[in-house]
């Protein structure tokens, strides 16, 4: 790591700690502590699950890096991912700036072209997975069968059971 990178890293760490202190002061430390107490052990569970999500996305990002590029350490990608996510959450530019920061940061260790493609592929894969998850949830939980003339509502009974109707709808459409 060169001298400039060390200064930037030190400044970023100090700025992050100062921002955390400012936000805690604005919200009130007692308010934050009370909210954490309300969650109890659930706070640690949420923190753990969030960490797993970011770790799995770092693994996915590593898989999206071109095999011709120098290999990346998983912990480095995890740190870059957290950095990009925090910029995304804290800046008005949102994901545009957060993703650009990730590309800029990863381009220090691999060629910029590999960095851009790896970030774009990982984001598109994640977006497609999220969209399919949301669509599946929508299909399961909404009464989609009310508007379908293919299958009569009487096949589902008077009470709407989303899981049964979704699987019944799929099986009916597959068997036709």
Shape: flat
Terminal-residue CA separation: 63 Å
Report the helical percentage.
over 70%
Low-pLDDT residue intervals, each spanning 5 or more residues: 149-153, 156-160
Number of helices: 7
Number of strands: 0
- C-alpha-based Rg, rounded: 23 Å
What's the domain count?
A: 3
- Give the biggest sheet: none
Which percent range describes the beta-strand content?
under 5%
Q: Work out the oligomeric state of the chains in this entry.
A: single chain
Task: List the helices and strands in order.
Answer: HHHHHHH
Q: Name the average pLDDT.
A: 82
Tag the structure with descriptive keywords.
mainly alpha, 76% helix, 3 domains
Q: What features would you describe in this structure?
A:
This protein has 176 residues and is mainly α. It has helices at 3-27, 29-39, 41-64, 74-90, 95-106, 112-141, 162-175. Helix 4 (74-90) packs antiparallel against helix 5 (95-106) and helix 5 (95-106) runs antiparallel to helix 6. The longest helix has 30 residues, at 112-141. The chain is flat. The termini are far apart.
């Amino acid at each position: 790591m060169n001298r400039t990178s060390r200064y930037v890293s030190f400044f970023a760490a100090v700025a992050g700690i100062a921002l955390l202190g400012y936000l805690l002061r604005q919200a009130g430390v007692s308010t934050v502590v009370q909210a954490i107490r309300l969650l109890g052990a659930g706070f640690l569970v949420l923190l753990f699950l969030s960490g797993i999500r970011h770790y799995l996305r770092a693994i996915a990002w590593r898989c999206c890096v071109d095999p011709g590029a120098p290999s990346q350490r998983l912990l480095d990608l995890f740190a870059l991912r957290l950095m990009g996510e925090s910029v995304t959450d804290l800046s008005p530019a949102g994901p545009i700036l957060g993703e650009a920061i990730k590309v800029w940061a990863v381009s220090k260790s691999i060629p910029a072209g590999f960095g851009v493609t790896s970030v774009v592929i990982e984001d598109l894969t994640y977006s497609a997975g999220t969209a399919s998850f949301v669509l599946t949830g929508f299909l399961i939980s909404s009464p989609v069968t009310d508007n379908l003339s293919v299958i009569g509502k009487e096949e589902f009974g008077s009470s709407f059971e989303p899981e049964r109707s979704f699987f019944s709808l799929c099986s009916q459409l597959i068997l036709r």
